[in-house]
Amino acid sequence: MAGRGSLARQLLGWQVVVVVTLLAAVAVFSAVQARSAFQTTEGRRMLSVAEDVAATPGVRAALADPLRYHQLPPFAESARSLSGADGVLIALPALRVLTSPDPSQVGGQLPVGGSTVQSGRSWVGEVGAHLVAHVPVIGDDGAVIGIVAAEVDRPSFVAGVVHSPGEALLILGVATVLGVGGSLLVARRVKRQTLGLEPTEIAGLVEHREAMLHGIKEGVVGLDPQGRVTLVNDHAKTLLSLPDDAVGRPVTDFEFNDRALDVLSGRAEGADQIVLRRGRVLIMNRMPISGGDGVGSVVTLRDRTEIVALRHELDANRATTDTLRAQAHEFSNRLHTIAGLIELGEYDEVRRFVDRVSHTRSAWQSEVSSHVADPAVAALLVAKSSLAAEQAVGLRLEPSSRLGTVDEHLSADLVTVLGNLVDNALDSVRGGGGWIEVALTHGDGVVQVVVRDSGPGVAPDLASEVFRHGFTTKAAEEGGQRGLGLALTRQTCLSRGGTVEVDGAVFTARMPEVPV
């Protein structure tokens, strides 16, 4: 309550300032208008008084004869009394004053300022604190024989306001009413919008907000209804690779992919949306801000790159475990077969069965080794063969495949891409007794990976969607949740300057040996 009272007092002070300012402005306007009207009206009157004195025959006769100068004061005093002027002076052409209501001026110089009277022309203007009209007295020979000056004191500022025209006073009254009414409306609006907070408290809240935005470890981006950035903290700039002048610019200026733009604009709804941005896996949540005509929205984002990498490693370990389990299961079945044949006394059949199993296993390993020189890729194909066999899926290598030795970075990328594509193919043909064929080619500085399967493939309208949102073909068919396998495959290819595409059930990835 104390804060609200203090704010009310400040608003009252602002109201007083506004009203006083308006009154002062109108008063100045009124004074200027009154002064202009005074100069016009009184200037004409003083000019008429001076002309009447200058045209008086007795004045002309007295000025023509130096012995009759003593006859001039009655003419001047009579004109001053009748006209209401503050002074009527008569002087010689040399500006020596002959008569004046102020005896100290007699014999002195007549102040003329910028007057043109000495050249024989009448003049009206300000001299000192007086409004003066100068009129020459012309002799019989046409020469200037004297000067008549009629003057009136200029009114003060206050007098000018008091005696200003009625229109100015009306304006002053209207301005006062408008000023008071406007101030009251402004006070009510300010009270309502600031929720009764003190100006110092509002400034403190702004400072706390800035400290909080730049101190938290999550990225925060504020957007207005037109999609322009209104605020962004340091962490969001780093995660989204935004420039320092991002505030005030639309999100379309920052080369976001379609997925990121969908989340930022609200076209993609839901919590914890996955977005890939320049090698980072981001989790984004968008919250609209309600109020007025639409304030905008706030988007928070977290970096999950390390978590996804750890999960990817966990998936790799799980795949290895599944492979070992599949091999153990396969060996267990073979051992049971051998044990049964021994119990039946079929020793020749045992020998033939062992030879057949050894030949099949050796043949696949020999085929992979003869076509693939990179150890990591070859080991991946051997391991995936056992996993495919457990799922009753045939895994084969295209006869023309050739892959030479590559550097460790390209080898790691090939393992990521080939592993994700084979896993995706296994999901597509799982339980169907189908087949998967892998083709590897290496030439002209580019490694190409082609994985095709006997599954239904990807619908043409999902050909780009599977990579942008991370669908697997199985998820695309069943409407399942989004995954990251194909999205990471695309990201790995693009990071090297390569490409990945799908045509039905055929996935083709191309990666240059030297990253572009």
Record keyword descriptors for this entry.
516 residues, two-component regulatory system, nucleotide-binding, alpha+beta, transmembrane helix, disordered N terminus, 5-stranded antiparallel β-sheet, transferase
> Main sheet?
5 strands, antiparallel
Could you report the average pLDDT, rounded to the nearest whole number? Answer: 77
User: Which oligomerization state do the chains in this entry correspond to?
Assistant: single chain
Low-pLDDT stretches are 1-5, 472-482
Q: Whole-number radius of gyration?
A: 51 Å
- The strands making up the biggest β-sheet line up spatially as 2-1-5-4-3
Span between termini: 66 Å
Shape: rod-shaped
Question: What level of helicity do the residues show?
Answer: 40-55%
Structural class determined from secondary elements: alpha+beta
Number of separate helices: 15
| Number of E-state strands | 15
Strand content: 15-25%
Subcellular location: Cell membrane
Keywords: ATP-binding, Cell membrane, Kinase, Membrane, Nucleotide-binding, Phosphoprotein, Transferase, Transmembrane, Transmembrane helix, Two-component regulatory system
Main location: membrane
GO molecular function: ATP binding; phosphorelay sensor kinase activity
